[in-house]
Design brief:
about 35% helix, 3 domains, Double Stranded RNA Binding Domain, CBS-domain, alpha/beta, about 400 residues
């Protein structure tokens, strides 16, 4: 069964049944870290480094308040190590022990999160992580026939080893990702750099502002001075089962994808979770916009209208299966807001990726889906860029 087979509702239902045969009770982590609203950013980052959690429950007097998110800290330009986290807590959705695994995958995609709190009443009784869902994927034999290239993210966003660290910081923030491949002057992969290395380097240099890292003196050094050079990779013809197994056993979230030694894509936990989410039964095209700030949600209807218009055009060429769009907003001072939108469309057994940055949310969304539409038309006209699964 390949990606294209997911168009078959019977096979889709079978895959969903396999995934949801696992219960929350099977994967819940009951020994988990927690924070208090009066804790600081420094306390949070120290706990995140020590435990590997990127979202940590915040509770007061035993009652759940929300989650402290690594991504929130990175985007908050005014945050310092002494900032109290009560001003930074995010209202992520919660789950219970009856929630289906495919629903959890959908919530993780929608909110671009790595952990969700399991609640009994108002008390946190455990955590479910992306890692646990990747372990489920690693044990699913049905993923053996889905190839890495079918769901990997392309084109590859990377940094050169002689780029300044500030370049990596800006790219990670723009894309709302944590890790970037590092290539040499010949374009060959020679490492990865993550936000963990950026933060560690900045704090060692005594930087106090988390949000201004890209402009800090500690970021004016070559990427190669902090990048990790011992990198696990995956071949683009390898199976999703093999990729999931590597991620699960080695506890990594990102795998550079190679084809005959050439860097051709990146596979992340998010890509696999997105695949699991797409197995939920739906009567029509699944469209999901994630990452909208509360005051931007008033534009959601206009965004969906533009999406529906473009998808109707795409449907005349190929049948679109699912579309996910992730929004990242940056406050550039005053009332100026900048948006970075990343879209992924599953269509005709292929994946189309696109990214657009702009100042107007609705227009940027419109530009993104039109860009996706152009890519789909290119697929129709040429089979060079995208390869179909061999039959």
């Amino acid at each position: 069964m390949g990606i294209k087979d997911l168009e078959d509702l019977k096979k889709l239902s079978m895959l969903k049944s396999q995934i949801d045969a696992v219960s929350v009770g099977d994967i819940i982590v009951k020994d988990f870290p927690s924070l208090n609203p009066e804790d600081t950013v420094s306390d949070s980052l120290a706990l995140m480094r020590r435990t590997g959690f990127q979202e940590i429950p915040v509770a007061k007097d035993g009652e759940y308040i929300g989650m402290m998110r690594y991504g929130t800290i990175l985007r908050k330009k005014s945050a310092t190590p002494d900032t109290k986290i009560k001003t930074l807590v995010s209202s992520l959705p919660t789950i219970d022990e009856e929630t289906e695994i495919t629903k959890i995958a959908e919530l993780m995609v929608t909110n671009n999160c790595r952990q969700l709190a399991v609640l009994t009443g108002k008390k946190v009784t455990g955590i479910v992580s992306r890692t646990a869902l990747i372990q489920i994927a690693a044990e699913m034999k049905s993923l053996k026939n889905i190839k890495v290239w079918e769901i990997m993210t392309t084109p590859v966003v990377y940094v050169n080893d002689n780029d300044m660290l500030a370049v990596a910081v800006d790219k990670m923030r723009d894309l709302d990702i944590r890790t970037l491949p590092v290539v040499d002057s010949a374009g060959k992969l020679n490492g990865v750099v993550g936000m963990k290395e950026v933060i560690d380097n900045g704090w060692k240099a005594g930087e106090k502002s988390i949000g201004a890292l890209s402009k800090a003196p500690s970021s004016q050094i070559p990427v190669s001075s902090v990048s990790v050079t011992s990198v696990l990779t995956i071949n683009w013809e390898d199976s999703m089962e093999a990729a999931s197994d590597i991620m699960s056993s080695k506890k990594i979230s990102t795998l550079p994808v190679l084809d005959d030694g050439e860097l051709v894509g990146v596979l992340t936990e998010y890509d696999i979770i997105e695949l699991m989410s797409s197995c939920r039964e739906r009567d029509q095209l699944y469209v999901q916009i994630s990452g909208l700030e509360d005051d931007d949600k008033i534009y959601a209807d206009a965004m969906y209208d533009d999406i529906a218009n473009e998808m109707s055009k795409i449907a005349k060429i190929y049948r679109p299966e699912s579309l996910t769009i992730h929004v990242t907003r940056y406050n550039e001072g005053g009332d100026k807001k900048k948006y970075s939108l990343i879209g992924k469309l599953f269509v005709d057994g292929r994946v189309v990726n696109a990214k657009v940055v702009g100042w107007d949310l609705v227009q940027t969304n419109n530009d993104l889906i039109k860009k996706i539409g152009y890519e789909v038309k290119d697929i129709k006209d040429s089979n060079v860029t995208f390869r179909k699964r061999k039959k």
